[in-house]
Amino acid sequence: MHPDIHLRLHALRASDLRDRAPRRPAARDRRPLRTRLGWTLVELGLRLVAAPPAPLRTARIA
Fold first, then answer.
1. Cα distances (Å, whole numbers) of residue 38 to 32, 46, 47
2. Which position has the higher pLDDT, 31 or 23?
3. Residue 28 carries which DSSP code?
4. pTM of the model
């Protein structure tokens, strides 16, 4: 079977299944939490990149 035909049949079948699937109730908006988490991770990453590397400590044997 030609790949284009296969992809078209797959798209039609997926569309048919989506139409038959029961509708989910609208989920609550999670963007504020995702946004805060995302910016916190960005801030952490910038701090890690900007921080100078810690000097290595060597053990002293007396």
1. 10, 12, 14
2. 23
3. P
4. 0.38
